[in-house]
Amino acid sequence: MPKHATSLPLSLPAPPAGTPLYRWFYDELRSAILEGRIVPGARLPATRDLANEYRLSRATVVTAFEQLKSEGYVEGKVGAGTYVSQVLPDDLLQVAGTSAGKTAGTRPVTWSAYARRLPLARGGKPRITRAFRANQAALDVFPTTLWAQVVGRRLRRASAQLLSGGEALGYRPLRQAVAAYLNTSRGVKCSTEQVLIISGVQEALERAAHLLLDPGDPVWTEDPGYPGAAIVFRAVGAQVRPVPVNAEGLDLEWGQRRWTRAKLIYVTPAHQFPLGVTMSLRRRLALLEWARRSRTLIFEDDYDSEYRYQGRPIPALQGLDRAGVVIYAGTFNEVLFPALRLAYLVVPPGMVDRFAAAQAVSMRHAPLLDQAALCDFITEGHFARHIRRMRELYSERLAVFLESSRSRLEGLLEIPDIEAGLQTVGWLAPGISADCAAEEAARREVEVIPLSRYSSRRFTRQGLLLGFAAVDARELRRGVEQLAKVLEACQR
To answer: Rounded to whole angstroms, what are the CA distances from 424 to 13, 162, 417, 466?
Structure first.
């Protein structure tokens, strides 16, 4: 291959202020090579000549050359000088086209059965919070300054041991704090050893599904119910069996008649999602006894039990369990803020080792510094005070929502009694389509979700899921006014 000499007739701009000269010279040479102004195989002038031509020190030019050599743009030959490489590193990153006009990136992948059962997800842009955003806390009033102080203090005194990692089950002091909180506030009966710190209830479901279910195993889910649970169970090949929910919660007798058996039952007994009913004590005891006799496991999702506006919080189903059949999950993401990605799973003593082993071979443990900061937030009393403040705030927003709805939506939307949670179901008047309402409301920057999206069966009445906790009183009143106009239009 013939070599080409070059005198580098380049008009280089003045280096930007603050940019090291070697870096500026390196960038200019690399650009000249990539743009073809210095062709592959061209011999570069000596470093001394370049230094004189551009009024640089020879050390600056040598440093730039060495960087280009290490990256593969130029190559040196003893006694012959420095040449531009025939094949540039950027060329190797390009995917050559095939004869069919397809790139190598379109090569088909043989996906596993698990991957093929997953619904494809698309990322969305962050949206401005509007009425009636469901499943979201009042993030605008979270004490970020206080949280930053707690995190900063924890980081400043972080030990080498904390920075090196920890147990698969999670940061032990946090697990101790969670166990104490659950025993006191939720009626959960557990020790620190039974608590596993995870990223969220969704991960808890995924972990339980992989450890407990084989393809074809029957799983009962509430209908209507949380769709994320059914997605996880179907992905591992389980047979999802929807069971209706009535005023007492999951209709156990209906499930026994229709499906006869289950390997796992998923329930939200404290505040059923999305209907909001509380499972009665009679139904809880019957479910636990049947699970014990049939050797069925129960996954209890206690996603927002902290926020109850009438009476004391209902004790967890797990607290009534005497046979070790309940796996209990709760989350800090709903209570504090979604980006925290910290939750907890309480498993029966005989299951701890398997769950810990699964955690160790997957994410190892949740971010340890975040766990330590959350532990401080709890043990210093901030968590309990935050819960009390938010319960008062949500109660005020609920009152505004109910007052506005009863004065403006009467005859269009019926709001049942609301005892707990961050959202409620609204039952539409006959003749109003939930899909029509959701579509028209979106045009008016109002968010409502048709209840049909959470169910596999038809309801005699159509309904909407509406959140009231995420926005202030002014936005709630605006949302009610706009929703009234929407429902009036959809009724015609």
So the answer is: 64, 42, 9, 5
Short-list 467, 180, 453, 189, CA closest to 304: 467
What's the half-sphere exposure (Cβ side, CA atoms, 13 Å) at 70? 7
Closest CA to 227 of 345, 119, 331, 113: 119
Q: Are strands 423-428 and 463-467 parallel, antiparallel or unpaired?
A: antiparallel
**Closest C-alpha among 63, 54, 41 to residue 9:** 54
- Rounded CA gap, 218 and 297, in Å? 11
Predicted confidence (pLDDT) per residue in 329-373, tens digit: 999 998 999 999 999 999 999 999 999 999 988 877 788 899 999
Instruction: Identify the bridge partners of residue 221 per DSSP, sorted by sequence position.
Output: 242
Query: Pick the residue with more confidence: 421 or 478?
Result: 478
Instruction: Return the structure tokens found at 164.
Output: 């090196």
- Say which amino acid occupies 359: Q
Q: Pairing relation of β-strands 343-346 and 195-198? A: antiparallel
**Domains of the chain: residue spans and CATH:** 4-91 (1.10.10.10), 142-384 (3.40.640.10), 391-491 (3.90.1150.10)
Q: How confident is the model at residue 1, as a pLDDT?
A: 46
d(CA 344, CA 99): 53
| Burial bucket for residue 82 (CB in 10 Å: 0-12, 13-18, 19+) | middle
Q: Which tokens belong to 311? A: 């009476």
pLDDT above 70 as % of the chain: 91
Is residue 415 within 8 Å of residue 426, measured between CB atoms? Answer: yes
The continuous run of DSSP H or E covering 355 comes out as helix 352-360
> Which tokens in the block code for residue 263?
């390997």
pLDDT recorded at residue 220: 97
Q: Which long-range contacts (CB under 8 A, 24 or more apart) does 381-389 make?
A: 382/143, 382/146, 382/150, 383/181, 383/336, 386/143, 386/335, 386/336, 387/306, 387/335
CB burial of residue 104 (10 Å; 0-12, 13-18, 19+):
exposed
Strands of 4-5's sheet in order across = 4-5, 42-44, 81-84, 74-77
> What residues contact 289, with CB distance under 8 A and at least 6 apart?
none
CA distance linking residue 235 with residue 358, whole number of Å = 17
pTM, entire model: 0.77
